[in-house]
Amino acid sequence: MALTLKEVEHIAKLARLELTEEQKELYREQLSAILDYMAKLRELDTNNVPPTAGGGLTQMILREDESRPSLSKDALLENAPNAEDDQFKIPPVFE
Amino acid sequence: MTNLTELTLTEMQAGLNKGEFSSRELVQAALERLSQVEPALHAFLYIAGEEALAAADEADKKRKSAGATGQSPLLGIPIAVKDVLTVEGLPCTAGSKILEGYVPPFTATSVKRLKDAGAIIIGKTNNDEFAMGSSTEHSAYGYTHNPWDLTRVPGGSSGGSAASVAARCVPAALGTDTGGSVRQPASLCGVTGLKTTYGRISRYGLVAFGSSLDTVGAFGRNAEDVAQIFSVMAGRDQLDATSADMPVPTIDFVGATGQSPLRGLKIGVPKEYFIKGTQPEVEEKVRAAIQQLKTLGAETHEISLPHTEYALPVYYIIAPAEASANLARYDGIRYGPRADAGNLWDVFFKTRGQKFGPEVTRRIMIGTYALSAGYYDAYYGQAQKVRTLIKRDFEAAFREVDLIAAPTAPETAFEIGERVDDPLAMYLEDIFTLPANLAGVPGISFNCGFDKNHLPIGLQLIGSHFREDLLLQVTHAYQQVTDWHKRAPKL
After folding, report:
1. Do B381 and A37 touch (CB under 8 A)?
2. HSE value, Cβ hemisphere, 13 Å, CA-based, for B20
3. Which of A17, B260, B415, B447 is the most buried (most CB within 10 A)?
4. What is the pLDDT of residue B442?
5. What is the DSSP letter of B141?
6. What pTM value is reported for the model?
7. B157 given a catalytic annotation
8. Cα(B124)–Cα(B164) distance, rounded to whole angstroms?
9. Nearest CB neighbour to B199, from listed A27, A42, A55
10. How many domains does one find in chain B?
11. B143-195, pLDDT tens digit by residue?
């Protein structure tokens, strides 16, 4: 199945990826080839097969709902590209 | 004194206990070995030399004051950690530019348990970016070379860890296995690598890739060493809701009865894993190894896992779909670098567009497409259903046999650059390892011979859920009567 350039642009937008024109063409070709390969799955009749979601564990492990110390604000903000007054700083959302 | 880096983990423990050498000497030997081979290998992204020496001095002090009994099992033993697991204070990039400069303020549970048991972290090893790849060529920080032939790849994604053990830099190293990322590099580097059952080891502190598939595993020179690392890391963790509440077995290698653990053991040999396209020498050596298991008392049965050929397309929908969601967090706001842009929207697009490498971008695109409106049922939905069929194949097989034996990878180590621009060719490298991840079952790979280029060949054993003990015992029994695992590359 050949993807169109427009479809590639749509996927990139959904994934929040800025691509160059060259990259768009490259991924158009590569993704088309990969999706062709995936089409193999349609050979199988799966009408009565339930989906497997998750890794197969039957139960989640939950801990007691008790307060406990968490990582410090300073430690977490240390890795931020921009922080001020105990907060992450970002460029304007609205212009 | 013998060359300390030649010792296995178990031998290091014995020497430390007898006072033949100190932990400082072990760490120094590891660091010297690294300064010797690392320029040619590039197995590490970060070497924590000073921290490791300080930890070694601590360990030596502890050993003196505690005496020979009551020691932490791994006290003073140097190990390496794949760069997708966090260690507080050590840079963690996951092989990606989007995490360049990130220093995690917390330690992964798997690593913390090893540190609590006394292990010393020598450094962080190279891997394909976000563990996506089968050659370590997709690391944003340069590729790792195979110690057996420096022109070839070590496999991946845990290529740095496998290479560091094969090259005798460390006796053991941590890896992660989402589609074969422990077993395949173990095979290509000729070491023992364990992929654990889904849920067996906590993923707290693991950089998430495919959350229904990701597992933490370990590399060592033999089953006994891997078992020690495994036993320390395994078990429920309150910080990971997907960690299983299952007892962790003590792995008994001696056997209470003194009988071979293989006596009466039923080993299934799946015909779908012996197919055209596999390197003939790989099939030959793998069949010879299975024959050897037979002489140790096992029975072999030809079995069928009929949906094996669908594992690759299922995996390359499910893993990228999960990755596209997991990697949405890298947006240039909370950690890592941020691209210069005037508004928030552009920060997202530019940071992600510029900092993710080609394979990660490709997978985010595949996953996003497979989850997008109009395509979800055809791709993701169908893949989840076929995953059920693959799981059922294993359930049916394990009603008949105790273990499954097969090649780990269809070929020995390939040349650097040979496949890096051909994603499908690279994906095919994982055809024999992906099914275990889709079913959530454990697997192990260990050296069972060499091809004509003197490159190692791996035998893969796959067990039923939570039977790592059996995988390790059988591997150990094989390693008692063979010496492939003792061969070392000349470096």
Report:
1. no
2. 14
3. B447
4. 98
5. T
6. 0.97
7. yes
8. 10
9. A55
10. 1
11. 999 999 999 999 999 999 999 999 999 999 999 999 999 999 999 999 999 99
The shortest CB-CB distance from B241 to any of A49, A62, A90 is to A62
Residue in chain B lying closest to A20 (CA): B353
Count of positions (residues) in chain B: 491
Only one residue has tokens 């495919």, namely B210
Q: Give the Cα separation of B139 and B94 in Å (integer).
A: 8
DSSP for B219-281 reads EESSHHHHHHHHHHHBS--TT-TTS---PPPP--SS-TT---TTTT-EEEEEGGGS-TTS-HH
Query: For residues B228 and B74, is the Cβ–Cβ distance under 8 A?
Result: yes
Assign residue B83 a region (left: φ > 0; alpha: ψ between -120 and 50; beta: otherwise): alpha
CB contact under 8 A, A42 and B378: yes
Residues near B156 by beta carbon (within 8 Å), at least 6 away in sequence: B127, B128, B133, B134, B135, B136, B137, B138, B181, B184, B185
Whether the bond into B157 is cis, omega within 30 of 0: yes
CATH number of the domain encompassing residue B147? 3.90.1300.10
Determine, yes or no, domain membership for B464.
Answer: no
Mean pLDDT of chain B: 95
Residue pair B146/B188 in contact by the 8 Å Cβ criterion: yes
CB atoms within 10 A of CB B70: 6
Report yes or no: A38 and B375 within 8 Å, Cβ to Cβ.
no
Q: Which residues of B touch A38 (CB under 8 A)?
A: 313, 316-317, 370, 379, 383
Task: Calculate mean pLDDT across residues B402-416.
Answer: 98
Interface ipTM above 0.85: yes
Instruction: Locate the domains of chain A by residue range.
Output: 5-43
Label the pairing between strands B120-125 and B266-270: unpaired
The pLDDT assigned to A58 comes to 64
Per-position b or e across B11-26, b if 16+ CB within 10 A of its CB: bbbebbeeeebbbbbb
Q: Is the Cβ pair A55, B106 closer than 8 Å?
A: no
Backbone Cα Rg of chain B: 21
pLDDT, one tens digit per residue, over A25-82 is 999 999 999 999 999 999 999 999 999 987 766 666 777 889 988 899 999 999 999 9
C-alpha A68 chain-centroid distance: 30
CATH number of A5-43: 1.10.20.60
Q: Is residue B242 part of a domain?
A: yes
Q: Which two tokens stand for residue B72?
A: 């932490």
The 3-state DSSP class for residue B441 equals: coil
Instruction: Measure the CA–CA gap between B342 and B276, rounded to whole angstroms.
Output: 55
- Quote the strand ranges of A3-95, DSSP E: 83-84, 87-88
For residue B408, what are its two tokens?
């780990």
Containing structural domain, residue B67: 4-251
